[in-house]
Structures are given as C-alpha cells and as structure tokens.
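Problem 12. The chain below contains 247 residues. Write out its predicted structure in token notation.
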Amino acid sequence: MPEHSENAAENMVSGIMDAIADKLPKQKSVRFSEEGSISSQAKKLFGGDKSVHHILGGGKSADVLLWRNKKISSSVLGGATAAWVFFEWLDYHFLTIISFVLVLGMAIQFGWSSFAGMLNGSPSNVPRVELPEEVFANIGAAIGAQVNKFLRSLQDISCGRDLKQFLMVIAGFVVASFIGSWFNLISVIYIGFVSAHTLPVIYEKYHDQIDEMLYNMLGLLGSQYQKLDKGVLSKIPKGSLKFKKSQ
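Solution.
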C-alpha cells in the first residue's frame, strides 16, 4: 500500500511537470552556451555539475532534506507541522505551551518522587535533567557564523559594482516584504521549512523536466525584455536633463 501511494504521488508530480513544460513556449533566443543540452545549460544556475546533495552541504542535514532516511525526514516534517498547527490553527502561544510543558514535567516528577517514596519507604532520587553547556555554545556559534556570513555577503553586494546583482537582491527583499504582509512570521518559517524538505527532493528526481522548464521561462522572459527594450526603453532619452526656471 505505501509503495502504491508513493508511485501515485510520483506519477502526479511527473504529470504536473509535463503539463507545465508543454504549456511553456519553446524559446530559442536565449542561449547559455553553444554546446550541451538544455539540462546541462540550465544546471549552471544551480552549481554546474554538482549534485543536489553536494549543493546542500552534504552530511546528515542534506540526507534529511533529500529524504535519504524517510523516518527521520517524516518525523522532522511532522514535528514542524504539529508545531505550526498548535501555533496557527489552535491559537496557542509559545509562552502557553512552555508553561504547559513545565507544569506537566513538574507534575510527573512530583508524582514519581511521592509514589516512589510511599512504595520504597525512603525518598527516591529523581534523575536530574541537565542540558550540556556545549550544546548552547555550539548553537550560538553556528547562528553567529551564519548571521555574520549573511551580513558580509550583503555588504559585498552593496559595495560591489554589479548593479544587476544588487537590483536582484533588492527585488528579493521587496518580494519578501510582500509575502510578510500576507502571512505572519510563523507561517513564513513553516512554508520555508516545508519547501526546504520538498523542493530539493523533487528537483533531484525531476531535474531534467525542471531544467527544461526554467530554460524555457528564461527564454520567454528574455524575449519579453527585448520587446520592452525595443518598444519603450530604447526611446527614453539618455543624458542629463535640463530644467528651465519658471519666470
């Protein structure tokens, strides 16, 4: 039964990809290189000939994102979904859940120590719950390194001379601001989490169809830009504008 449902899901995704690819016009105006197939040309946008596992950094995190171990990946995604349902649908708050968890933990420890003392006749030693300090130090160091790396990349883009890359980053932040106005922070984080656990594995299985679709979309955007440049942008006068003083 699971194999049948998995095959049905794969057939559905494959049918969707084929339908999208058929509706896109085949553009030949945009060429990334003179040689190679469409898939090899479009792969240059995603790290050349590197595998998806290598692009994601390799290791256990990439294995989880690519569903190498389906039990761990499904557990992580299920836990994130349960947290999102608690916060978004059931209108629970973070402080409320933390308080419930602490109350439940204290009640279990109280019952354990009380009943163990009544049965044994002597107070029971409840095991202490202690988290190692190295865990928090490693988490803080990892988060700090990623934040500093992100800030350095933004500074490099801002201080560089690549106007196209600068505008693309600005456009990305504008799109993120619009998405933030439609969803709250928890929903945005959950959407990103689900996308990180679904898009890489879909691309790994259907990379040929996706590469061809992206190549056709880039060709379509290139042709539309050429029309816009020929009809509008080329007619805009360049140079300094002179304003006449009103008398």
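Discussion. Residues 94-120 form the longest helix (27 residues). Students who got a different answer should revisit the alignment rule from Section 12.3.
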